[in-house]
Every structure is written in structure tokens, then in C-alpha cells.
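Following up on my earlier thread - several people asked me to post the actual chain instead of describing it. Fair enough. Here it is, all 278 residues.
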Amino acid sequence: MGPSILGVSIFYIVPFGVVVFYSMISSPIERDFVFLDNFKNLIANTAFQQAAKNTAVFSAISVPLAVIIGLLLALLLECKLPMRSQFRTFFLSPMMVPVASVVLIWQVLFNYNGVVNEFLINIGIIGATEKIDWLKSEYNQIVVIFLFLWKNLGYNMILFMASLNNMPNDLIEVATIEGAGPFYKFFAVKMRYLSPTVLFVTILSLINSFKVFREVYLLTGNYPYGGLYMLQHFMNNVFQSIDYQKLSSAAVIMAIVMVLIIGILFIIEGRFGKDLEG
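Reply from S.P.:
Thanks for posting it. Predicted structure:
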């Protein structure tokens, strides 16, 4: 384990310790210990407040949708449907598309003169003079949520399908013989065995929701409109201005929030699957 511990320490633990150190000093040059002053100044910063709010709203909407829709797709493919392999390939194909190509597709779709506006005009929902600049409107976060789901649903679906295939069929058969309906079998039996996978997919989707900065940055640049200004934008802009204290403080707060959320998810999953393990 020595080489592994050494590698983790060099590339993860020590750098994070340096970040914590920078978050509690006045500057990299003077290095006066200021403790929580940097965090207080950061929380009072309006740009950070806006970025934190947008990130929280985006994750609160996109992560549950990614988990629920991924599970529903897996349950759908569990049925004996025609063209199951083609359907599965369709949802997995976005994973093979480079980010730059994805951004190009979304620009073609949601540009002011893009495909979506032309479609809405042709079916009479909006007029020719009522075009929407999607990425600079109140709908911009919805556009990115669709992008996030399009990129991640396939992988979530595969994880749920693997978990469903490993589920013992004897319990389902007993529940069927006892007269259990489909909803009872799903929530009382299947969800018990799916709970570890739900936890894993939720954590994975949460992490991916914090990585959406790549797509948004390529779509809108350093300072996107309104709801697309995420924590990653704030941290990237602060880094470019060489404000290491503000950047480090934001990184520490972000890490603490992630650990708390994941800890709560573990507690919920532990209580939910406790009787199953017993």
C-alpha cells in the first residue's frame, strides 16, 4: 500500500492542505494568518452568492432528474421491447461525442437563428419577431440541464441495468405469488436492492453536475448570462485575477458542502437498506 498512499498524498492530500493553508492567510507573499476572514469576505461577495445559488439550483434540478430518468429507462429496457440494443446504443452514443462537438450541436439548436426557434415558428408557438436567444434568456439553465441529461443519462441507465440484472429473481417470484402488485414489488423489493446503486449514481451525477462548467464555458465564455454563472466560473475568474485567497476559500467551502451532501446520502442509504442487510 506504500506507493499508493504516497501517490495519493502527493497528488491529493498535500495539494488540498496547501489550499486550506492559502484560505487562511492574507496573501502568498506576506502569509499573515487571518483564520476565517477570507471566508467571511467570500460569503459577503455578491458574485460568489450568485454563483453558489445558480450551482445549487442547477444541481437540485439536474441530479434528481438524471437519477430518476436513468432508472426509468433501465426499467423500460428490462421489458422485452423490440430494438432494445438500438435504444441502448442511442442513449450511450453521447458519451462518445467530444465536448466541443456537443457544444457545436447545442449552438446550432439554441442559437437566436437556430433550429429550435425555427421549429417553434413553424408550428406557430412564437412569431418570427419573437425569437428567443436561449442562452441569454431566463431559459438558459433549462438548456444546460437538457445538455447535462443528454450527456449522462446513458451511463446512469447502464449502471441501473447492471444492478437490475444482478437482482435475485426468487424474491420477485415470491412477491408475485403472494399477489403483490407492480408498484409494491418495485418499491418494497427492487428499490431495496437498488439503493446502493441509487446512492452511487446520485453521487456520480452530483459530481458531474459540478463539471458542467466545460460546456457552459464553451457556450458562453467567462461571464455567462444570469443563471449560468456557476461556482466554477467564479473560481476560474478569480484564478485569472490571481486572488489565491478567494479561490482557496471557495474551493474549501465547495469541498465541505460536497462532503456534507455525500455524508447525508450515505446516512439515508444506510437506514433505507438496513433491514435488507439484516
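The mean pLDDT is 85. That should answer part of your original question.
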